[in-house]
Every structure is written in C-alpha cells, then in structure tokens.
Amino acid sequence: MVAAGARLTYDRQRTAGWMAMVVITSTIATIYQLYWDFVMDWGLLQRRSRNPWLRDELILKPKIIYFLAMALNLVLRLAWLQTILPSLFGINDKNADAVGFLLASLEVIRRGHWNFYRLENEHLNNAGKYRAVDAVPLPFREVDED
Fold first, then answer.
1. pLDDT tens, 99-113?
2. Residue 145: what pLDDT?
3. pLDDT in tens, 18-61
4. Which of 64, 44, 62, 61 is nearest to 53 (CA)?
5. What separation in angstroms does the CA of 62 have from each of 48, 69, 77, 109, 125?
6. Given Cys at both, which of 66, 72, 86, 123 links 91, Cβ 3.0 to 4.6 Å?
7. Torsion over CA: 64, 115, 77, 94 (sign)
8. Distance in angstroms (rounded) separating the CA atoms of residues 96 and 87
9. What number of other Cβ atoms are within 10 A of residue 103's Cβ?
10. 111 to each of 50, 62, 135, how far by Cα in Å?
11. Which has the closest alpha carbon to 41: 76, 75, 80, 69?
C-alpha cells in the first residue's frame, strides 16, 4: 500500500525524492512478495529438506523446474520496473499503451504460473496431514472388455 501511495504521489510530483521513495518502497514490497510466494505459498526454500532449498515432497521429478519457476517468478515480478523507469527501457508516449498491455499480460501469466505451484503445495499439505488422500480408491473393479 505504501509503494502504491508513493507511486501515485510520484505521478503528481515528479521529483527525485519521490522517485527514490517509489524505488525503495517497491523494492521492499517486491522482496516481501517473493518471500511470501516462495516460502508461504509454494512451500519452497526449506533449508533442512531432503531436496536442498526446495521441500521434502515434490510432484515434479526434475528439481531444476522449481528453481526455474522461482527465477521466472522473480523476472515477472520485476516487470514493474518498466513503469517507473520508462526512459531506461525506451518507453515513450507512443508505445506506453502497448507496454501497459504487455505488462498486464505478463501479470496474468505470472499468476497462472504461481497458481500451479500454490495448488501443488496445498495438495501435498492436505494429503500429508490426511485431510485429503493422494488417490481415491474406486468402489468397483475395472474390467477390460475385449
């Protein structure tokens, strides 16, 4: 909320002080959001797990996928930089709408990506605490009909 307030104030008063405030508050907010995504929502970055820096149980076998997912989430979270430093990225009034559309699309992709790992973690927690089961046995036998 503080970062959003600083951004709104910077839009009205474009001074170096407000720009610094936007960068500082947005950086703190981004670090906190990344921590929350990785540790609380995805259940990753556990130092003492069987899978270093991940978690004990993983659904996807290649562990590199989880590290790539964290890196992708980081990159997509940092897309906000383009909104506060437009001249650095070559954004002008002509292409501001296109960049806004692109950033909104990237946020949709990030949220879908986030959702996969959040649901995976929730499923593993529910199955591990016996609130749900990994597989539900069917009440009948499967019969092969040839």
1. 788 888 999 999 999
2. 66
3. 888 888 998 899 999 999 999 999 999 999 999 999 999 999 99
4. 44
5. 19, 12, 24, 22, 20
6. 86
7. positive
8. 11
9. 14
10. 28, 22, 27
11. 69
Give the pair of three-digit tokens for residue 61: 């076998």
Binned at pLDDT 50, 70 and 90, residue 121 comes out as very high
Q: State both tokens at 137.
A: 């046995």
Cα distance between residue 34 and residue 67, in whole Å: 13
Task: Label each residue of the chain as H, E or C.
Answer: CHHHHHHHHHHHCCCHHHHHHHHHHHHHHHHHHHHHHHHHHCCCCCCCCCCCCCCCCCCCCCCHHHHHHHHHHHHHHHHHHHHHCCCCCCCCCCCHHHHHHHHHHHHHHHHHHHHHHHHHHHHHHHHHCCCCCCCCCCCCCCCCCC
84 pLDDT band (50/70/90 cuts)?
A: low
Residue 57 and residue 61: Cα distance in Å, rounded? 10
110: tokens are 């990030």
Tokens standing for residue 69: 């997912």
